[in-house]
Amino acid sequence: MDPVGNDQSGMHGRTDSYGAAYRRLACTGGRCVGGKLTEDDAEDGRTRPPPVPSGADSTVDGSGSERLALFRYVTAENAEDYLAVMKLFSSTLLADLSAAEVSGALREAGRDMDPETAEERCRTLVRWGNLIRSLRDARVPTVAAYRNSRARFQMSTLGGRVHRQIEDILQATDGAREVARELLGSTVEVLDRILARLSAGESGETEALAADVTTVFNNQSLFSQSARDFYTYLGSVLTRYDLMGEEYTTLKGLLLEYVDLISNDVARHSPAIVDRLDRLERHLPLLVDTLATLPGLADSNSGPVERLPGRALDDWVQLSAWYTGGSGSSGPAQLRAAAEQALGQLITNAKRMLSSGGTGASRRADLLRLASLFAEADAGVADRAFAASFGAYPMRHLGIGAEEPDPRVTPTTSWWDAPPVEVPLSLRQRGDRSARGRSSRVPDPGLDRARLTAQGEQDASRLRAAVAELIAVREMNGAVLSDYAREVLLDYLGDFMAMHQAPGRGVEVAMPFEDVGMSLIVTHSPGRCTVLRSLSGEWDCTIDALTVRVEQIAGQQASGGPR
C-alpha cells in the first residue's frame, strides 16, 4: 500500500497500461516521439512542437547569436555549477541523466547540489543550447521514480564541442607552446604515398588512402595552430617594457635558436609539399571519387553532415593556398615576417636597455620590492615608505634662483597657485632625457646689443631729466614732482638711510651722488615732515621727522649714470 492507500503490488505489470494512457494523453495534448513521452508531457496540457529528428539539436540554429549563447555558462552567475554539470555530461558517451542523477553524481564527486538546483541548471543549459531534452523511458517501478525521472537531458552536439574547447583553455598554460614542426617532413612522406597509390591504381587500398588523406590535413591543422599560438605568445612577451635580465636572456635564446629552427624546417619542407600538391592536382577528381565510395554518414538521410577534411576539392585548394599564397600571403611568408618582426623587437629592447640617455633600466624589481615592503609593514611604516618612494610630501614650490621665471614665486608658494614648470616634449612623451635633432644655431648678438644700448640711453636720459627736476625744485617739502622724479628721490633717499640710519637731532647731513651730479641734504627734525605731491594729483608722499633738500654738486651737471 502506498501512503494514500493504493495497492502497488502489480505496478511492474501495469506499467504498459500506464504508458498507453500517457501516450494517448501525449498524442492529444503533448508530443509523441517514438511511442514514448518527452519531459513535461501531460503536466500542463499544452501542445508541443513537432518532433525533432534523432540526433538533431532543437535548441541551436545556424544563426550567430544562437551559437554565441553556447558560451554563456562560462561567465554567467554560478558558472562553477554549470561547468560541473557540463563536465559530468561530457565524461561519458551518450550520457542520459535526470536532475536527480546529476545531483547524486556531483555529490559523489564532492560537490553538493540538490536535485532542484540541478534541474534548474540543466534547464538553463537547455535554453542556451548546451543540453537537449532526452527521451525518457516510461518503464519505471514506481510513480515516485517516474516523477523523479520525468526530465532527462543529453549533451547537444555543439554544446559538447564548446565544452571540450573550454576544458582545453582551462587546462592550458600561459607559457610558450611548442610548434609541431616535425609534421612537415611527415606530410611530405604521406603525400608521396598518396601519389604512389593513385598512380598505381590500387583501388583495394581505399581505407589506407583515406587514412593518409586524414593524416595530411590533421598534420597541417596541428602545425598551423601550434605555430599561431607560439607566435602569439612571442608577441605578447616582446611588447613588455619590463623585459630584463634572465627573462630577456631566455627569450633571446628562444628567438635565436628555436625560431631559427622553425624557419629552417619551413624553408626546407615547404617547396617539397608544394611540389607534391602540384603533382597531385590532376589526380584530385579521382581521389575525391574514390573516397566517396567509402561508407559514411553522407549516405544516410540524417541531415547535414560535417565531413572529414580532404573529401572535397575545396579542402585541397585551401591546403595548396596556405603554402603558395593564392590571392594573399602564404603561410611560410607569414612565418618569416613574424620571425623578422620578433627579432626587430628584440633588438629594440636591447637598444633600450643599453641606452644611457633613455629612461634607464626597468623598475620592475624595485616595484616588487616596494610591494613586499607594503605587504609586511604596518600602517605607519607603509605611509612613510609611500611618501618617500613617490614624493607625496606637502605641496611647495622649490626656488631655482636666477633662472626662476617669476621672482614673486617663493618657496612658500603652493604648487596649486604657482605656474606650471615647462617639461621638455621628449621627456614628457617618450621619457627620453637625451637631446634630439640638430644643435641650434648660435644667435647673432648684434641686434640684442643694439637694443640694449638704445634702452640704456633712454634710461640715462630719463634719469638726467629727473635729477634736473629735483635740483630745480631744491626744497622737497611741498614740491610737485613727476612720477619718475619721485621714484628717483625715494631711491636715493633709501641709499642715504642705509648709510645714515640715526642722524642726530637737528643735524644736517649731506650725501653726494657724484654719478648723477646731485647731493642729498637731510636734516632730522622731529615734529616736522616733508610732503611730496604728484604732478598728476594721484598721490601724496609724506616723510616724517625729516626735511629733504637737493642741491647740485659744484662744478658738475646732472648726468644719467647707472643705477
TrEMBL record:
<protein>
    <submittedName>
        <fullName>DUF2397 domain-containing protein</fullName>
    </submittedName>
</protein>
<dbReference type="Pfam" id="PF09660">
    <property type="entry name" value="DUF2397"/>
</dbReference>
<dbReference type="InterPro" id="IPR013493">
    <property type="entry name" value="CHP02677"/>
</dbReference>
<feature type="region of interest" description="Disordered">
    <location>
        <begin position="428"/>
        <end position="455"/>
    </location>
</feature>
<feature type="region of interest" description="Disordered">
    <location>
        <begin position="34"/>
        <end position="63"/>
    </location>
</feature>
